[in-house]
Amino acid sequence: MDPLLKISHRPATCVPPEETICATVQAMVRNRVGAAAVMNPDGTLAGIFTERDLMTRVVAQHRDPETTRVGDAMTADPVTISPDTTLEQALEVMVSNHFRHLPIMDGEAVVGMATVRKVLKHKLDEGKEELESVVSFFTADGIGG
What ranges do the domains of the chain cover? Predict the structure, then answer.
């Protein structure tokens, strides 16, 4: 399995554009995620709804979350990545665009949701393992040591 998919939210939380903001947020809370993929009836990605969208397009505009449709508050046509995107490439896209979530697409299908938090944690864990290995090498008390 691709490293990006291993650390991503799979499956992604998906909702139709007609879903209310309230129901979408409830799904996000239930799944412990900060974003939902908004899916057209034909299964294609219409957009992404994030915590930031909730803040800027619903709360700040005094829209009623019980009646506002997620399709009216989502980020349409979001930037996406593929399963073979490297962790470094995903992180670069997120950091350079100030994104915290990226849908992972395999063709037309949403197969996961990458988060900057999980990518950074994975990179930190990798760095920690490498550092521990180097420290062990140099502090080993063996022949020639």
Answer: 3-136
CB 75 within 8 A of CB 48: yes
Alpha helices in the chain, H assignment, sequence order: 3-7, 21-30, 51-53, 87-97, 116-139
Q: 18: Cβ–Cβ under 8 A, 6 or more apart, which residues? A: 69, 70, 71
Amino acid at 105: M
The reply to whether omega before 103 is within 30° of 0 (cis) is no
Tell me whether residue 44 is exposed, middle or buried, using C-beta atoms within 10 angstroms of its C-beta: 0 to 12, 13 to 18, 19 or more: exposed
Residue range 3-136, CATH number: 3.10.580.10
Residue 90: other Cβ atoms inside 10 A: 24
pLDDT digits (tens, 9 = 90+) for 29-55: 999 999 999 999 999 999 999 999 999
pLDDT digits (tens, 9 = 90+) for 70-83: 999 999 999 999 99
Which positions ≥6 away from 73 have C-beta within 8 Å? 21, 49, 53, 54, 57, 58, 63
Q: How far apart are the first and last CA of the chain?
A: 40
Number of neighbouring beta carbons within 10 Å of residue 94: 21
